[in-house]
Amino acid sequence: MKIGILGGGQLAQMLAQAGAPLGMEFMFLCPSEEACAAPLGQHLCNDFDDATALDRLRRWADVATFEFENVPASVIEILAAHTRVYPPARALAVAQDRLREKQTFDSLEIPTPAYTAVDSQEQLSQAVGRLGLPAVLKTRTQGYDGKGQTVLKQQADLLSAWERLGGVPLILEAFVPFERELSIIAVRSAKGETRCYCLSENHHRDGILRLALSRCGDPLQDMAERYVQRLLQNLDYVGTLALELFQTEHGLLANEIAPRVHNSGHWSIEGAACSQFENHLRAVSGLPLGDTSLVQPAAMVNLIGRLPDLGALTAVPGAFPHIYGKSERAGRKLGHVTLTADGPAIDAEFQKRLASLLRLTGEMQLATTMERLSAA
Hints:
Elements: E1 2-6, H1 10-19, E2 25-29, E3 42-44, H2 51-60, E4 63-66, H3 73-80, E5 84-85, H4 89-95, H5 98-107, E6 115-118, H6 121-131, E7 135-139, E8 149-152, H7 157-165, E9 170-174, E10 180-188, E11 194-196, E12 199-205, E13 208-215, H8 221-234, E14 239-248, E15 251-258, H9 268-271, H10 276-285, E16 298-304, H11 310-314, E17 319-323, E18 333-340, H12 348-360, H13 364-375
Parallel strand pairs: 1-2, 1-4, 2-3, 4-5
Antiparallel strand pairs: 6-9, 7-8, 7-9, 10-11, 10-12, 10-14, 12-13, 13-16, 14-15, 16-18, 17-18
């Protein structure tokens, strides 16, 4: 099976690593000369809308997919006219526009934070008057890892926020006093078969995911599965999808979707019977879906900006480093480490080892929290 992937970053890299044992071949269309997935297949170093490159990819590939949601929709339409492309274009269109995304949640009776569209400075003032402060102002498109958004805490913040983000369509969302940030990752085949992974509990700093913990048996699992199943069916989805959620005192609120494999599910490589990456490939290529059951409790720690000493990382029992081969740069995801538990539950020993990993990566506050939990 020949798989064409739009994008050549770490998600494409991990897809190719998962597909190699299945005998799959890969071609990556990515404009970066430093695409870290390039050594795992053919690399077309061209813009996404390069007609010659697109023609070459669609002639070569049996099926095409994408590793991130900022691929131009026109590119998907071009490919879809000539070859199978999953996930479908509609899912991409929904994920690319935060307003359309929230409206989709509404239509499926999936609760969200209060929101309103903002297209002018006057509308921003009116929206703040309705939703109150604090609130979060976001660009409707091109936002990820905390980019394209800002928190408004007081009236004085409105002008600077508009000057920084204005000029493009925006959305204002009520600030949610959440108890936890969660995500559920699910996969659906072209035949409508679906599987869900256990919930991930996510911890962010500066808008970037730092830690994801598998939460098998979480009491909110069933509610999260109901919401993601509605999305999969409504979008006629094929592939892996992530739904990000806020846990509040009133239940779960949907934040956003990612129509692709997702950072919060990286622990599934070692922690689940079949990883999110392999299951995405199974879905788009027409193979039966794999078992999403948790093999052992696991956590994922992102390596951001700089790489810790590899010897120190591998010295932590149960740690599995994944280094992407990128050059160091502030805020850049350079790799991740999966930590697996020895037994069927997350215990004090696991939390101690997780604290050690977090300290190696500079996440001192999270490390202190884990140490406190291990001592409780």
